[in-house]
Amino acid sequence: MDMWDPYGASERGHLPLSESKIVFDQFHIAQYLARAVDKVRREENKWLKQAGDERLVGRKYLWRCHPGSFNKKQWRAFEELRESDLKTARALKETAMCLFDFRRLGVARKFFRRRCYWVPHSRLEPMQAAARMMNEWLENILTYLKPGITNAVSEALKAKIQWVKYTARGFRNQQNFITAIHFHCGGLELAP
Question: Are 138 and 113 spatial neighbours (Cβ–Cβ below 8 Å)?
Fold first, then answer.
């Protein structure tokens, strides 16, 4: 689930032993880290443009895309920026997404502590805020490693229900909406 406090409060209020059952998955961690890197990029781009440096102009999506989807030209441009002395490159290197590659809690915890040790010294406030947030919720982030599952299926189902609601432009009653959800999301075989 998301790290929004009301979600956690609801979970703690309705579920016994909820602290060990709350899981923050990769999507939400990646979202927070990407926002922090993007904030560093925007601040640095503004400062560089004032100094006449155009290295980050037109490169916004290089930082937002997954490197596995790059073509050769994009990969070369990304590598050039990533290996530079820019604050954005430093912020990108501080992201802790490889935390989810571990299978043992102790090793993952040790990796995170080592990775986040030097973040306060980096003088990149958005990355410091992201590291503080991850440190605060670390145990619930690491609970992802136990079952290794995400809420991607439920998020996809929710998106499909929203699509049904949007394309119908409203229903006369709630039962018609429920029937439409069953029809589109129920996996019914309609062939005779």
Answer: no
77-81 long-range contacts (CB < 8 A, ≥24 apart) are 81/55, 81/56
How many Å apart are CA 60 and CA 80, to the nearest integer? 14
What would the DSSP string read from start to end of 107-139?
HHHHHHHHHHHSGGGG--HHHHHHHHHHHHTHH
Ranges 10-14, 85-89, 119-123, 173-177, most confident: 173-177
User: Mind listing the pLDDT tens digit for each residue in 31-75?
Assistant: 888 888 888 888 888 888 888 888 777 777 777 777 777 888 888
Q: How far, rounded to the nearest angstrom, does the alpha carbon of residue 120 sit from its chain's CA centroid?
A: 21
